From TrEMBL:
It comes from the Eukaryota. PANTHER family: LACCASE-RELATED, MULTI-COPPER OXIDASE. Signal peptide: none annotated. Gene3D superfamilies: Cupredoxins - blue copper proteins. SUPFAM superfamilies: Cupredoxins. InterPro entries: Cu-oxidase-like_N (IPR011707), Cu-oxidase_2nd (IPR001117), Cu-oxidase_C (IPR011706), Cu-oxidase_fam (IPR045087), Cu_oxidase_CS (IPR033138), Cu_oxidase_Cu_BS (IPR002355), Cupredoxin (IPR008972). Belongs to the multicopper oxidase family. Keywords: Copper, Glycoprotein, Metal-binding, Oxidoreductase, Signal. Residues 202-222 are annotated as: Disordered. Residues 1-54, 276-362, 454-568 form the Plastocyanin-like domain. This is Laccase. It holds the Pfam family Cu-oxidase.
Length: 618
């Protein structure tokens, strides 16, 4: 019931259907569902899924309540929490983007807008920011991977600035970015304690860039290879980095931007209750997102559907596929406050884009939809490129210990797999030298599948401890980081670092590098750029589970493997491929039999005929 075509089921055909049946059992928490066929979840084939926890389950925020009344209010806030599906949107169908990518080789990094629960608007950037580039013209800083574990000592951040973005304008410390001089003295801010620094082009301010509010085209690179990352096109996108031979920027639609005034998503809170909660999921195709709530701190109490030791933050970086549940104390003046979410530029996805939802305080059940937004630069915690201000605490995702104390098995693993992540071609990402390709028949049905013995199918013993050590290969065309997601399991995130993991096994590594005491337990983590990450899990769920990058276009270009788990038990649970839903071979046979007057007489044929008729007339 995992929904991956070629792995756990046949794809659902046009006008077809498939019913997913599963038990929540002891499960709880915030998840999401989405299509796994081509890039169709970009076309809104996705949504949130919430399993309410048992009232008897302990909550991480219980110790923060000052009395039983406040605890009741916090529990009620959790029960009424608003799910927020944060997405990026191309304003074109995914099939068009897919064809353009595989034809030209131009990575689809440039989206048209961001959305919260389907609401949002296009907000073109001031020309001064377009001149400045992804790092906002802040000398030596280009926002990169927020979870890069590497600290770069000696790099200055004394030119960082703040911004506050409304529906039509932005300001830096109450000054308009349209009128500010990029060489002025600015107040100091930060983007992350683990920043990756790059020098900005000092000639940026002299470039002739088009106005962001016009529909003029962007001056894109006209050759393959690295593009000038120090200026942005009208949508806030860096110039394309690579093309297939024979293609260049003129092969792409022109980059334009025009402001819209579409409605923003608004969710309400009763100020008299003292607390509000909401669930966040990054369901984007390419955008790593940063989230902040003007004037408020956010208490993170769950990650990827499980309770964690709480952290109080003002800026929350969310990689694609990750989920967080947060609680907010309503301690400000009642009114409307922006919940800001911005693309955090990293790797070859260098776009500066922000949108907002609105948290509306209510008093005595009175709606405040007509009140002005509390849009004050002193209330904002992050820049328009998703970087955090200096005084704004950020989430430390490696300190998200499970609230229930769930620790990994100690000692050596039963199996260790080493995964080299590599971009071997402009449109090809591989694991251990092989791109994943969707089999015609689902792997879960065993050796009748054309994917059963593929190089990207690995067979794991049941009830065993498995370590997966992954790293970005040195010879990869792009050494950016990746959000890595495992189906069918939670896993322990034991550690990450620079370069290749320098040990043969986890047990050889020092405790300063590997956390076996209280590591995070989740299903999506970041592989750092030019770095390594180690996860551990237990094979207690028979099946065929996809392990893949959650950047949409990396996944469809091969970055994944299938982990077959406890195949003997799996086979006894699954049944025959002939009985599989939406099996095109069975459907073709059904059509043939329906047109035939010949009645099968063998016991096998009779059984097959009965199965076919069931499929036809059910």
């Amino acid at each position: 019931m995992d929904g991956v075509p070629g792995v756990t089921q046949f794809p659902i055909p046009p006008q077809g259907n498939f019913t997913y049946r599963f038990s929540t059992g002891s499960e709880y928490g915030f998840y999401w569902y989405h299509s796994h066929f081509r890039a169709y979840y970009n076309d809104a084939v996705r949504g949130p899924l919430l399993i309410h926890p048992s009232p008897s389950r302990r909550r991480p925020f219980e110790s923060l309540a000052r009395d039983s009344t406040e605890l009741d209010a916090m529990r009620q806030a959790e029960r009424a929490a608003t799910p927020l599906l944060l997405t990026d949107w191309y304003h074109r169908l995914s099939d068009d983007i897919y064809d353009e990518y595989f034809t030209t080789g131009a990575f689809p990094q440039c989206v048209d807008s961001l959305l919260a629960n389907g609401y949002g608007r296009i907000q073109c950037l001031p020309e001064s920011i377009l001149h400045a580039g992804p790092g906002l013209g802040l000398e030596s800083i280009i926002a990169n991977d927020p979870h890069d574990p590497l600290s770069m000592p000696g790099m200055s951040m004394d030119t960082m600035s703040s911004s506050s973005m409304s529906s039509s304008s932005m300001s830096i410390d109450s000054m308009s970015m349209d009128s500010m001089s990029m060489d002025m003295s600015m107040s100091m801010h930060k983007r992350s304690d683990h920043a990756t620094m790059m020098a900005a082009d000092s000639t940026t301010s002299g470039m002739n860039m088009p106005s962001a509010t016009s529909t003029s085209t962007s001056p894109m690179a006209s050759m393959s290879g690295m593009a000038d990352m120090s200026n942005l096109g009208p949508k806030g996108c860096s110039m394309q980095m690579m093309f297939k031979p024979g293609f260049n920027a003129s092969s792409l639609p022109p980059e334009t931007c025009s402001n819209t005034t579409s409605e923003l998503f608004m969710f309400n809170a009763d100020a008299s209750q003292g607390w509000v909660a909401f669930h966040l999921v990054n369901a984007a195709a390419v955008s790593r997102l940063s989230v902040s709530l003007d004037g408020h701190s956010m208490l993170v109490y769950a990650a990827d559907g499980l309770y964690v030791e709480p952290q109080e933050v003002k800026v929350l970086h969310i990689s694609i596929g990750q989920r967080y549940s947060v609680m907010v104390r309503l301690d400000q003046t009642p009114g409307n406050y922006y919940l800001r979410f911005a693309s955090y530029p990293y790797g070859d996805m260098q776009q500066v884009i922000e949108d907002q939802a609105i948290l509306s305080y209510q008093t005595n059940g009175t709606s405040m939809t007509n009140m002005d937004i509390m849009d004050d630069s002193t209330l904002t915690w992050m820049l328009v490129n998703g970087s955090a201000k200096l005084t704004a605490p950020e989430l430390d995702d490696q300190m998200l210990a499970p609230f229930d104390g769930n620790a990994p098995p100690s000692g050596p693993s039963d199996t260790t797999e080493l995964f080299a992540i590599n971009q071997t071609d402009i449109v090809t990402w591989v694991v251990n030298g092989q791109p994943f390709s969707e089999p015609q028949s689902p792997i879960i049905y065993g050796n009748v599948s054309d994917g059963w013995n593929a190089a990207t199918t690995l067979h794991m013993p049941g009830n065993s401890t498995i370590d997966l050590i992954m790293y970005v290969a040195n010879d990869s065309m792009d050494t950016m980081g990746h959000p890595m997601h495992l189906h069918g399991h939670k896993f322990w995130f034991l550690g990450s670092g620079e370069g290749v993991f320098p040990y043969q096994s986890v047990t050889d590594a020092p405790s300063s590098m590997i956390n076996l005491r209280n590591p995070p337990y989740r299903d999506t983590i970041d592989l750092p750029p030019s770095g390594w990450a180690v996860i551990r899990y237990v094979t207690d769920n028979p099946g065929t589970w996809l392990f893949h990058c959650h950047v949409q276009w990396h996944q469809v270009s091969g970055m994944g493997v299938v982990l077959v788990e406890d195949e003997e038990r799996m086979r006894s649970m699954v049944g025959s491929i002939e009985d599989a839903a939406n099996n095109p071979n069975t459907a073709a046979l059904a059509t043939s039999l329906a047109r035939s007057t010949v009645i099968p007489t063998s016991s096998y044929s009779a059984a097959l005929c009965a199965a076919v008729l069931s499929l036809l007339f059910h």
